[in-house]
Amino acid sequence: MQQDGGERRLFFPFTAVVGQERAKLALLRVAVDPTIGGVLLSGDKGTGKSTLVRALAQVLPEIEVVEGCPFNCNPRNPLEMCEGV
Q: Which pTM does this prediction carry?
């Protein structure tokens, strides 16, 4: 379990999610190649969409971001910064 602002959340390993093979593949592809631009997961409630994303986030390395930026802009590349920075 992990603390998150006083809440206790249980995070499942990415490999522990059974099924959703196309969604897993899409998330892994965008993690490897960010030029894809993103993934939109849709489906019925309870199909594991949020669980998959949270599990993948636990596997990915931390990145540098602009402090206070809601979009987590890259501080090393002005071309990747939003207009709010």
A: 0.67
Tell me the H-state helices in the chain.
21-32, 49-59
Neighbours of 14 (CB within 10 A): 19
- Residues with Cβ within 8 Å of 55's Cβ and at least 6 positions away in sequence, in order, are 11, 12, 13, 14, 16, 17
Residues 17-63 have pLDDT tens digits of 888 999 999 999 999 998 998 999 999 999 889 999 999 988 888 88
Cα angle 74-80-84, degrees, rounded to a multiple of 5: 85
CATH no. for 2-80 = 3.40.50.300
Cα 46 from Cα 38, distance rounded (Å): 22
Domain ranges of the chain: 2-80
- Beta-ladder partners of 3: 8
